[in-house]
């Protein structure tokens, strides 16, 4: 994760980063009464236990909580807030009680003040206590002197039944039962004024305000998320209908924890407040009435089943500094698939000691408001498919045997599926690197010989699906000349399709020749000799035509006429870095035939069809796809050239003694000592042998 400025590494520990996990019971304590409310401070849980009063429970070992003490109050203990060494208790019909808990083993009731209603909840801000007083609405007490009983100051009689209150700044947000959410201006505590309200669909039992959003536990109507950016006109933003009856709510990061009555604890992802979604649920044995989340634990007051402690998250295993602003967080376990989030506690500080201030209110380090949560989707399931894969041109005996005379093939595959969406498809040829594409088809020009093609889908989480494979064999040579290959014991064996014209198969003109070696070489002293294998005519290629960067000779300027050729390189044509020459010379056989688009030594309908398909294109590589004049497009000029060459074959050129070259002779007296026999014979030229026709 990345911060907006350098942080103090000492302030960022694994314990400060938590991620959700499957909810499990960490521990419990069965109180004597009916647990209505829980407040957790440090290692102590303060439980408003109904008629059994206030219970103080040591939860330093969550697996084995221990009751430190209890205090029977005159009323029915409900909401409690601890400030320093004092616990303020909403005690039902007995109003507000102030209890000294400086010694958790021996709490002392310092006194109280009755209220006309039923005190359900309390929040203390400074010297004032705000009490949700049931049918009597909101009551404000002066608690500036703990040694004296609280003093009733004023009230605002809400239209419903005040069950809970939260004060933020100068506003008090009241969960007002059947009257929904009420927003009261308490900037003048002696004269509170209602600014606005939102009448929820259910019975509002609890409220928590984070920034401009109020989260309301709305009984049978579940969770309500209300935009309170304009207090005089609150607007419903999102809803989630929980399984039970929502009685309490706490938001921690991107998750809302709802005490959901008989259905226990339900966790809802609210990273998108307009569309909250279910994240997890934990059924408690009683009826969940309130919840407090501290770190990785949720403390639930569970009515007759007392206090339940639920493990809701896991702390990070390690935090590793990458640089001043970037850190890698490692968790011990993989999160369960689904919508998840991790939370960073607000105790992290910059180099000046300033704590995180996520809500921008100028007060950093607030446990709830300034925690940073990031939502994410945990996804370990790979995508399904593709289920089918085919090639475009299978010309073999069977239409599905993968044997074809067409080097240009379009591989097409079926769509893959994934619940969280696909990021890309990837394909590879002959076990090479994976190449990404958004399409479900790719066209490749393949060299002579067998090939394997693989395709797979990759989802948005980076999971790669099952690989779908197809084997294809390209056979570009028929019974006409078995064209020679580049050879030599120290050179990589590659076919003429690889060595000539940058891999293009068209043979209307040969423009480049690139031999490949098994080590780094440089150009030596031996010349490259291009020889017409029919006439014996030699054409020397100057060393200046060799490009050391690309490792290729530029033959375009030779303008070789139609015919069969050898490219000869003597043993000293190339030297390695130690100055050693090749152990033997190299010879490459190739042919030139105007209009031979497919490279098979004949100009026929197959070449015409390729040219026709590309007619009008202007994005071709020169001398490919039917471009017969090398200008990168296929137009009328190319069509005329094709028409003039239609029917030409290498066999005919050989039979004519290479007259296309303007000279030469055939038979035993032919130039260069070659022997040509049409119809099953051989050409023997400098040791090379080509079988013609047959």
What are the defining features of this structure?
single chain, about 700 residues, mainly beta, Methylamine Dehydrogenase, Chain H, Immunoglobulin-like, 4 domains, 6-stranded antiparallel sheet, 5-stranded mixed sheet, 4 helices, about 5% helix, elongated, disordered C terminus
What can you tell me about this protein's structure?
The protein folds into 4 domains: 36-261, YVTN repeat-like/Quinoprotein amine dehydrogenase (Methylamine Dehydrogenase, Chain H); 318-378, no CATH class; 389-473, Immunoglobulins (Immunoglobulin-like, Sandwich), CATH 2.60.40.10; 496-691, no CATH class. The model is unreliable at 478-497 and 660-694 (pLDDT under 50). It is mainly beta and 694 residues long. The strands form 14 sheets. The protein has a 6-stranded antiparallel beta sheet with strand order 26-27-28-1-31-32, with no helix packed on it. Strands 34-40-39-36-37 form a 5-stranded mixed beta sheet, with no helix packed on it.
Helices and strands in order, then pairings?
Layout lengths: L16 E13 L7 E5 L2 E5 L5 E5 L7 E6 L8 E4 L2 E5 L5 E5 L7 E6 L7 E5 L2 E5 L5 E5 L8 E6 L7 E5 L2 E5 L5 E5 L7 E6 L7 E5 L2 E5 L5 E5 L7 E6 L7 E5 L2 E5 L5 E5 L7 E6 L7 E5 L2 E5 L5 E9 L2 E4 L5 E4 L7 E7 L27 E7 L10 E3 L11 E2 L3 E6 L8 E8 L5 E3 L3 E5 L3 E11 L8 E7 L21 H4 L12 E2 L7 E3 L4 E5 L5 E4 L4 E2 L4 E3 L8 E7 L4 E3 L9 E7 L12 H10 L21 H10 L4 H6 L26 E4 L2 E4 L3
Parallel strand pairs: 34-40
Antiparallel strand pairs: 1-28, 1-31, 2-3, 3-4, 4-5, 6-7, 7-8, 8-9, 10-11, 11-12, 12-13, 14-15, 15-16, 16-17, 18-19, 19-20, 20-21, 22-23, 23-24, 24-25, 26-27, 27-28, 29-30, 31-32, 33-35, 35-38, 36-37, 36-39, 39-40, 41-46, 42-48, 43-44, 43-47, 45-46, 47-49, 50-51
């Amino acid at each position: 994760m990345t911060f907006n400025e350098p942080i103090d590494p000492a302030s960022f520990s694994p314990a400060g980063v938590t991620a959700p996990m499957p909810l499990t019971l960490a521990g419990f304590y069965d109180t004597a009464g009916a647990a209505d409310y829980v407040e957790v401070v440090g290692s102590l849980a303060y439980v408003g236990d109904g008629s059994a009063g206030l219970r103080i429970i040591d939860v330093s070992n969550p697996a084995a909580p221990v009751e430190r003490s209890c205090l029977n109050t005159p009323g029915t203990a409900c909401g409690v807030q601890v400030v320093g060494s004092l616990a303020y208790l909403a005690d039902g019909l007995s109003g507000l009680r102030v209890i000294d808990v400086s010694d958790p083993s021996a709490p002392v009731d310092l006194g109280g003040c009755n209220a006309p209603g039923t005190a359900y909840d309390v929040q203390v801000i400074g010297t004032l206590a705000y009490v949700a007083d049931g049918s009597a609405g909101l009551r404000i007490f002066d608690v500036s002197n703990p040694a004296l009983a609280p003093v009733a100051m004023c009230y605002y009689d809400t239209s419903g039944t005040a069950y809970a209150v939260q004060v933020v700044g100068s506003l008090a947000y009241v969960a007002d039962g059947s009257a929904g959410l009420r927003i009261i201006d308490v900037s003048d505590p002696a004269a509170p004024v209602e600014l606005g309200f939102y009448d929820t669909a259910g019975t509002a039992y609890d409220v928590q305000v984070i920034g401009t959003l109020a989260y309301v536990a709305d009984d049978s109507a579940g969770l309500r998320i209300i935009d309170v950016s304009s207090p005089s006109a609150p607007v419903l933003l999102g809803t989630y209908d929980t399984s039970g009856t929502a009685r309490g709510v706490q938001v921690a990061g991107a998750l809302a924890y709802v005490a959901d009555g008989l259905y226990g604890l339900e966790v809802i992802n609210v990273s998108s407040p307009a569309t909250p979604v279910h994240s997890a649920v934990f059924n408690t044995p009683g009826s969940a009435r309130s919840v407090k989340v501290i770190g990785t634990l949720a403390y639930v007051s569970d009515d007759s089943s007392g206090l339940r402690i639920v493990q809701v998250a896991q702390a990070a295993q390690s935090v590793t500094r990458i640089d001043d602003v970037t850190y890698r967080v490692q968790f011990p376990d993989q999160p369960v698939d689904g919508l998840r989030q991790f939370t960073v506690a607000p105790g992290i500080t910059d180099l000046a000691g300033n704590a995180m201030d996520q809500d921008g209110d100028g007060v950093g380090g607030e446990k709830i408001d300034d925690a940073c949560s990031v939502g994410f989707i945990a996804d370990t399931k790979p995508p399904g498919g593709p289920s089918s894969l085919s090639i475009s041109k299978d010309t073999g005996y069977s239409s599905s045997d993968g044997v074809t005379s067409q080097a240009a093939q379009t591989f097409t595959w079926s769509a893959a599926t994934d619940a969280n969406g696909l990021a890309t498809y990837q394909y590879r040829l002959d076990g090479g690197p994976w190449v990404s594409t958004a399409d479900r088809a790719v066209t490749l020009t393949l060299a002579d010989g067998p090939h394997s093609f693989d395709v797979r889908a990759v989802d948005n989480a980076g999971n790669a699906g099952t690989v779908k494979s197809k084997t294809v064999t390209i056979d570009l040579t028929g019974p006409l000349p078995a064209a020679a290959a580049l050879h030599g014991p120290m050179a990589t064996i590659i076919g003429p399709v690889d060595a000539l014209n940058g891999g293009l198969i068209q043979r209307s003109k040969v423009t480049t020749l690139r031999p490949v070696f098994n080590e780094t070489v440089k150009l030596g002293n031996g010349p490259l000799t291009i020889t017409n294998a029919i006439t014996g005519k030699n054409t020397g290629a100057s060393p200046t035509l060799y490009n050391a960067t690309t490792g290729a000779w530029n033959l375009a300027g030779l303008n070789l006429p139609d015919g069969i050729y050898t490219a000869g390189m003597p043993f000293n044509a190339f030297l390695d870095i130690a100055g050693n020459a090749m152990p033997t010379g190299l010879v490459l056989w190739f042919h030139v035939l105007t209009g031979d688009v497919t490279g098979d030594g004949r100009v026929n309908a197959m070449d015409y069809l390729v040219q026709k398909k590309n007619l009008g294109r202007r994005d071709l590589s020169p001398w490919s796809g039917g471009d017969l004049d090398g200008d990168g497009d296929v137009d009328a000029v190319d069509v005329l050239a094709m028409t003039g060459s239609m029917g030409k074959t290498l066999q005919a050129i050989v039979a004519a003694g290479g007259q296309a070259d303007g000279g030469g002779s055939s038979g035993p007296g032919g130039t260069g000592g070659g022997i040509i026999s049409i119809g099953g014979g051989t050409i023997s030229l400098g040791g090379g042998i080509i079988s013609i026709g047959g």
